[in-house]
Structures are given as C-alpha cells and as structure tokens.
C-alpha cells in the first residue's frame, strides 16, 4: 500500500518539528516523492548523515521490497 503525502509529511514533521519540510509528489502515484528538509540538526553533518536522519524519521516506511514508500528524492540542509 502506498503512503500518502499527508502521512509522509507528518512523519517528517514529527522527526524535525522545528524544521521546514516540503513534499512534492513526482508521479501522482503515491510512490515517488521529493522531499526537502531544512533543519538546524543537520548543521555539521555530512549529506549521508543528514539523509540517514531523514530515513530514521520515516520509521521503516522505505524498508525492503514491501515498504510503503518506493522512491524519495531528498534534499537536506541546515538553515542559512
């Protein structure tokens, strides 16, 4: 079952409550999204560490062949 934009956004907002989260549905199929997460917690972390933090916030929704989220293009950074 696919994840909704609302569910995805809520997971990321829960994981980054003070961050700015922007979600774009890339294909209209509920499986291919782009997410931009801007959060102070990313300051000093490299891109891999930032993306791991986002994946942790997704609580397994992208795990394995049966994950609810198939593809997520990520942009992460600390605020300017």
Short structural summary:
By secondary structure, the chain is α+β, with helices and mostly antiparallel strands. It has helices at 5-15, 47-57; strands at residues 20-25, 32-38, 71-77. It contains 2 helices and 3 strands; from the N terminus they run αββαβ.
What is this structure's SSE topology?
Layout: H1 5-15, E1 20-25, E2 32-38, H2 47-57, E3 71-77
Parallel strand pairs: 2-3
Antiparallel strand pairs: 1-2
Tell me the domain tally. Answer: 1
Class per helix and strand makeup: alpha+beta
Mean pLDDT: 91
Counting DSSP E segments of at least 2 residues, the number of strands comes to 3
The stretches of 5 or more residues where confidence is low (pLDDT under 50) are none
The largest sheet is: 3 strands, mixed
Order of strands, main sheet, comes to 1-2-3
Report the span from N to C terminus. Answer: 37 Å
The CATH homologous superfamily is termed BolA-like
Q: Please state roughly what percent of the residues sit in beta strands, choosing from under 5%, 5-15%, 15-25%, 25-35%, 35-45% or over 45%.
A: 25-35%
